[in-house]
Amino acid sequence: MYYYCLIDFLALLVLLIINHDVLLKKADAADSPVQKRYRYFLYAVIAYYFTDMIWYWLYVESWLSWLYIDTEVYFVVMAAGILLWARFAVEYLGSRTGFSKLLIYAGRILFVYVLIVTPLNRWYPIMFWFDGEGVYQTGIARELMFIAQVALLLLTAVYTLSVSLHSVDRKRQRHRTIGLSGLIMMVFVAVQIFFPTYPLYAISYMLGCCLLRTFVIENEREEYRSSLEIALEREKEHFQELKNAWKLAYTDALTGVKTKLAYVEKGEQIDRQIADGTIRNLAIAVFDVNDLKQVNDNLGHDIGDAFIKKACRLICGVFKKSPVYRVGGDEFVAVLEQEDYEDRHRLLQAFNQQIEANRQNGSVVIAVGMVEYKPGEDKSYKRIFERADMQMYQRKRELKALADEPVVFVGKPENT
Q1: What is the pLDDT of residue 37?
Q2: Which is it for strands 128-130 and 324-326: parallel, antiparallel or unpaired?
Q3: SS (H, E, C) the chain
Q4: Could you tell me how far CA 6 lies from the centroid of its own chain?
Q5: Structural domains of the chain sorted by starting position, each given as residue range(s) with its CATH number in brackets
Q6: In the chain, is it the N or the C terminus that has fewer CB atoms within a 10 Å radius of its CB?
């Protein structure tokens, strides 16, 4: 006798297992308007299973007072399920035709009808009653309610199938599945009219929900994943393009050191640190390559580019832990912080010794000016740079004075 409850229980378990992510609104589950409609429909189905299980148990135990209340709830939940089913189908189709609105209004009218007739049934038993032996009896109002449900399910299924004729690809399959599930539910509901004590309604919900989950919700989610993968791939391409653009903007194409744009941003950062009072140890080294114009004029720009690259390698070879910026054709700046700042005097001495050796053997000669940040005196990075630039030009004049004749770059262009 309890097989009726067992079917409801098994159908409920199946629904909870295959739709747990939708019901719990997990993060990886899409939460579109369609998904919400589907979830509300599932809530109504769950409520139906519970009331149906309790109904048959109370019916077998002949607890008529509680059975009467449960039967009232049963009809209300049933009508709510049909309304929510129609709303889901229409929402999924995305159609806003007059007929789709008619389906929704019909579902609402059915729901209101049940809300009105159910309490009236207590005084005028036109929907159901229990006879003297406790046997469940049905009235005309119940049959009208079931006929209305069958009609609404049929109309919704036919409308969905007609829309599928104009759908494409996977949408056509999903629309047909919705229509098919509606037809299956319609058949079981129609048979339920003649067999009121059989769990046919529960079976119709179970089959309908399984079809929807397998061939509609899961299929749509798979399509969403595919489109998401395509979008992510495009995002990666855009990121790579942005990365390449960033590299072009911040990396000097000839020397591989940082560009003037990066230098300007570094100056702005230092200005903020000066304003905040968070900067203490800082030194600036400004470099200028001697005789570049003479090399370009006499030997060509290819030799001149190699001349610049050789000068840059010399600077980076000494100031290894400092960011080096190319701020002009033959001008470079190194910002000395942390370890290089602590070792600044030795680095400057080593650099000038190398320049002296280069001057003697006719290699690249670079003038450098280095100053330290003076808290309280240097109000901006520009002031630090100006002092370093002045020292660099003083050094440049000294090197010019030492030279008996202009330095000529010797050798072929070198690879960086």
Answers
A1: 87
A2: unpaired
A3: CCHHHHHHHHHHHHHHHHCHHHHCCCCCCCCCHHHHHHHHHHHHHHHHHHHHHHHHHHHHHCCHHHHHHHHHHHHHHHHHHHHHHHHHHHHHHCCCCHHHHHHHHHHHHHHHHHHHHHHHCCCCCCCEEECCCCCEEECHHHHHHHHHHHHHHHHHHHHHHHHHCCCCHHHHHHHHHHHHHHHHHHHHHHHHHHCCCCCHHHHHHHHHHHHHHHHHHHHHHHHHHHHHHHHHHHHHHHHHHHHHHHHHHHECCCCCCECHHHHHHHHHHHHHHHHHCCCCCCEEEEEEECCHHHHHHHHCHHHHHHHHHHHHHHHHHHCCCCCEEECCCCEEEEEECHHHHHCHHHHHHHHHHHHHHHHHHCCCCEEEEEEECCCCCCCCHHHHHHHHHHHHHHHHHHHHHHCCCCCCCCCCCCCC
A4: 43
A5: 3-233 (1.20.1070.10), 260-402 (3.30.70.270)
A6: N
Question: Among 205, 176, 17, which residue's Cα sits nearest to residue 89?
Answer: 176
Residue 317 structure tokens: 């070879």
Q: What pLDDT score does 21 carry? A: 80
What pLDDT does 71 receive?
93
User: Any residues with CB less than 8 A from the CB of 309 and at least 6 apart, and which?
Assistant: 254, 255, 413, 414, 416
- Say what the pLDDT of residue 318 is: 93
User: Which pLDDT belongs to residue 31?
Assistant: 64
With 0.85 as the threshold, say if the pTM is over it: no
- Given the structure tokens 């007072």, which residue do they identify? 65
Sequence letter at residue 234: R
Side-chain half-sphere exposure of 4, counting CA atoms within 13 A: 20
d(CA 267, CA 270): 5
Alpha-carbon distance of 28 to 218, in angstroms, equals 13
Sheet holding 366-372, edge to edge: 324-326, 331-336, 283-289, 366-372
Task: Answer for the pair 266, 274: CB distance below 8 angstroms, yes or no.
Answer: no
pLDDT at 227: 64
Note the pLDDT of residue 407.
45
Q: What is the separation, in whole angstroms, between the first and last Cα of the chain? A: 89
Determine the pLDDT at residue 26. 60
CA dist 132 and 124 (Å) reads: 17
